[in-house]
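Format notes (please read before filing issues)

Several people have asked whether sequences and structure tokens are stored in separate files. They are not. Every record keeps both together, in the order shown below: the sequence lines, then the token lines. Line labels are part of the format and must not be stripped during preprocessing.
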Amino acid sequence: GRVGCEVKDRVIDALGRRQAILQRLGEFLVAYQPDFLARGPRFLKPLTRRDAARSLGVHESTISRAVSDKIVQLPSGRLMELRALFDGSLAAKAAIFEMLASDAGTLSDREIAERLRLQSFDLSRRTVTQYREELGIPRMGLRSRDHPLSHRRP
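Then the structure lines:
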């Protein structure tokens, strides 16, 4: 009856609003992160959910719900969680990965931090250690030039 139609209309309206916010967020991210989309994680600019919400004129919780449990396919074909675009550590982790892929067994976390500073990343040695461990890369003494990095690329 009438109550069923009202419920149906509310659900359809809610789905329309959700689709509209995802569309607006997608357009915003394409405009805000062109280098990341064209060149990869190393070029992700810092962005918070709060900043995105302000730019779109919505509440931060709206952005959080919109990105929760969503997967996006990048122009490269790679799939990633939409919420990862708000991970401030992604670019630094990509830089660490690239650095260690070329100098696998020869750099300590302190040396990595020093090289990252030259690339405009101001990370402490402890933060480099944390990110390296999150990437699944062993410490310097356990890395070998003969063994490829055994983890997922950021």
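For reference, the curators noted about this record: The radius of gyration is 20 Å. DSSP finds seven helices and two strands in the chain.
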